[in-house]
Design a protein that fits this description.
Blueprint: E1 8-11, H1 24-40, H2 44-58, H3 61-69, H4 73-80, H5 85-88, H6 93-100, E2 105-109, H7 114-124, E3 132-134, H8 147-157, E4 164-168, H9 171-180, E5 183-187, E6 191-192, E7 197-198, E8 203-205, H10 212-217
Parallel strand pairs: 1-2, 1-4, 2-3, 4-5, 5-8
Antiparallel strand pairs: 6-7
Helix pairs in contact: 2-3
Length: 227
Amino acid sequence: MAENPIRYVLFDVDDTLYHPSTGVLRLLDARIEAYLHQRFGLPEAELVQLRTEYWRKYGTTLGGLLVEHQVDPTEYLAFIHDVPVDTLLQPDPMLDQLLARVRAECVIFSNAAEAHVRRVLQRLGIAPRFRRLFYIENLDYVTKPRAEAFRRVLTTLQTDPATCLFVEDSPANVRAAQEAGMRTVQVGEPFDLRSGVHSHADYQISDIHALEPVLAALGLLQSLGEI
């Protein structure tokens, strides 16, 4: 077993709990660009440049909009999350069975809005596996990769970062989790062109279904007979 036993497995949601090929995140990105176009009337090239600038400076597009333009976050989040999750995603019984075997508490830690997080978990059929959810509203719009977001989660959980395993697709967020002192799993590519960040996670997996051997190596999986 690990010297510091893991008590919590923190999961991102979008492009982590489901495969990027579903297109959910691409539609979210398109909605963000539509919002920026409606508000500022910028051409596509300038929209991409603005989003890249905000990503590198604030971690999210909303972070930049809150600081520099004082947008209404409720209106923004409702607009960008208006995507057909129920059409794009399907129930994932294999993932549900894997989560049921995890010895540590499974926790959601997402930059998305509460309504979107709950819709995705419900559609995947894994909502009962998560007792505690951290999303943009209950973190007061402080988002990953900002260190303050990680501090808030750890304070609420009343735990040390060494007791957490962080599972995420964003290299920038993986790096921030490492800097916070968590063990990390990179889902998908370790390099993010937009942020220019390359993660060096403790574990690298192709998709969420490849998490099982990682959990087993850390002593976090119950046998089927124990469930």
